[in-house]
């Protein structure tokens, strides 16, 4: 079970699966509720070396107990998600400003 302690996120290029990450993935797989062969180091390592696109990144989340999460991600997918988050934040800020103006209008009786 993951700790509530502060987590550390690392992002690295997927040119090859680093040795340390191989061991971490094996430990993570041992804790999984259901096996996922695509994330097993013996399957992922050779696949990354043979077929990984140049913009593939390996995202690892570590907590006090070790690797808590792992996910390969394409750079473009991360950029798109980041852009979506910025757009959502801008929309939320716009809505907040509109609500403040509306409540000020109500408070002044305008």
Structure, described:
The chain has 110 residues and is of the alpha+beta class. 53% of the residues lie in helices and 21% in strands. It contains three helices and three strands. A hairpin with a 2-residue loop joins β2 (56-63) and β3. The mean pLDDT is 79.
Fold topology:
Elements: E1 8-13, H1 19-31, H2 41-51, E2 56-63, E3 66-74, H3 75-108
Antiparallel strand pairs: 1-2, 2-3
Mean pLDDT: 79
Largest sheet: 3 strands, antiparallel
Give the proportion of residues in helices. Answer: 40-55%
Summed up, the helix count is: 3
- How large, in whole angstroms, is the Cα Rg? 21 Å
User: How far is the N terminus from the C terminus?
Assistant: 55 Å
Which structural class should the secondary elements be placed in?
alpha+beta
Low-confidence stretches: none
Strand count: 3
Biggest sheet, strands in spatial order? 1-2-3
Element-by-element helix/strand order: EHHEEH
């Amino acid at each position: 079970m993951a700790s509530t302690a502060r987590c550390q996120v690392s992002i690295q290029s997927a040119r090859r699966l680093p040795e340390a990450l191989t061991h971490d993935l094996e430990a993570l797989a041992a804790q999984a509720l259901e096996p996922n062969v695509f994330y097993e180091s013996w399957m992922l390592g050779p696949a990354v070396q043979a077929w990984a696109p140049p913009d593939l990144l390996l995202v690892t989340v570590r907590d006090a107990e070790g690797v808590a999460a792992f996910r390969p991600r394409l750079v473009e997918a991360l950029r798109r998600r980041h852009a979506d988050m910025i757009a959502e934040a801008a929309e939320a800020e716009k809505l907040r400003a509109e609500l403040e103006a509306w409540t000020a209008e109500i408070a002044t009786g305008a």
